[in-house]
Write a structure and sequence with these properties.
Strand content: under 5%
Radius of gyration: 39 Å
Largest sheet: none
Structural class: mainly alpha
Low-confidence stretches: none
Helix content: 40-55%
Mean pLDDT: 74
Shape: rod-shaped
């Protein structure tokens, strides 16, 4: 690149690491760069742009998971309610058959206050999904 024949050179060249290893450049006094001017594109507002973070298949899986998990919660609550009623009725029958200790009044449990509807189970899953 430089056969050692010049003491000074003036040129409009770009300082690169390869050239800097061979030639001693002075400090830059002018940065000249080429710019391209273009018209700004108009941005169209899309109402479905909030779906952009995930693929359509992921959104479909999320939409399918909400009712499926809601139905599972509904079924588990029903099974739990049936089991608690069967143990309560078996305990009351055993207390009445035993004939002692107040006739089994102390063995009854208060009814569960949570709703056992399918709608409430799906609502709980949806609320857990959208919680921030």
């Amino acid at each position: 690149m430089c056969p050692q024949r010049a003491d000074l050179a003036l040129s409009a060249i770009t300082i690169t690491p390869e050239r800097e290893s061979v030639v001693d450049f002075s400090k830059r006094y002018l940065d000249y760069s080429v710019g391209i001017l273009m018209r700004k594109t108009e941005e169209k507002i899309n109402i479905f742009s909030l779906l952009a973070p995930f693929d359509l298949a992921v959104w479909a899986c999320i939409a399918a998971a909400i009712p499926v998990v809601g139905v599972m919660i509904f079924l588990l609550r029903r099974i739990q309610a049936a089991r608690s009623q069967s143990t309560t009725s078996a305990g009351a029958a055993a207390g009445a058959a035993g004939g002692g200790g107040g006739g089994g009044v102390g063995n009854t449990h208060p009814p569960v206050s949570m709703s056992n509807s399918l709608q409430s189970a799906i609502w709980i899953v949806y609320g857990a999904f959208v919680q921030q």
